[in-house]
Design goal:
The protein has six helices and seven strands, in the order αβαβαβαβββαβα. By secondary structure, the protein is α/β, with parallel strands linked by helices. Helix 3 links the parallel strand 2 and strand 3. 38% of the residues are buried.
């Protein structure tokens, strides 16, 4: 019979998976304006041990009340870099050794599962309605999209970011 894991067992389980997670994963939030979305992204980022988070453009800050309401204090586990310009954020991510992969429904994008997300990768997600800005679209090393099978044309940005972060970590795990 199975049972829910308790505190010590959870720590052991998470420690075991951390050891199997090579590479570095970062995020670039390009004008993600809704605090609840930013908070949800932060919480998932902390759970998946994201190394760096660039906040640029009109992105809601981690200290806003609406952001904190959904991040539930997990922002303390992340390293933030706040810059005005999305182009500068891409440059800083590259200077830190990351390849930048934009998550966007764009004509040059490949399916997310086909994108190489191993090594040091920075996943860029954009505004809830407009997506990634042109500076990020034009300067990303690669663009990837999340295949969708239903009649809905797009995903919430926090959901898309979560799927992309998980896929980046999953690609680094042993088979």
């Amino acid at each position: 019979m199975s049972r829910n894991l308790g505190g010590t067992d959870l720590k052991r389980l998470h420690r075991e998976w951390r050891r199997q997670a090579p590479g570095r994963v970062a995020l670039l939030l390009d004008s993600v304006a809704t605090p609840a979305n930013v908070g949800a992204i932060i919480r998932t980022a902390a759970a998946l041990r994201i190394d760096d988070v660039w906040l640029c453009g009109q992105t809601a800050g981690p200290d806003l009340g609406g952001t904190k309401k959904t991040s539930l204090g997990t922002e303390r586990y992340l390293t933030f870099h706040e810059v005005e310009s999305p182009g500068v954020a891409v440059e800083q991510a590259r200077a830190a050794g990351y390849r930048v992969v934009g998550i966007e429904l764009a004509d040059a994008a490949v399916p997310l599962h086909a994108a190489d997300l191993t090594g040091s990768v920075c996943l860029a997600v954009g505004h809830e309605d407009r997506g990634l800005t042109q500076p990020v679209l034009q300067s990303a090393d690669q663009l990837a999209f999340i295949p969708q099978l239903g009649r809905v044309g797009s995903l919430n940005v926090a959901t898309a970011a979560s799927i992309a972060m998980y896929e980046a970590r999953r690609q680094g795990w042993p088979d």
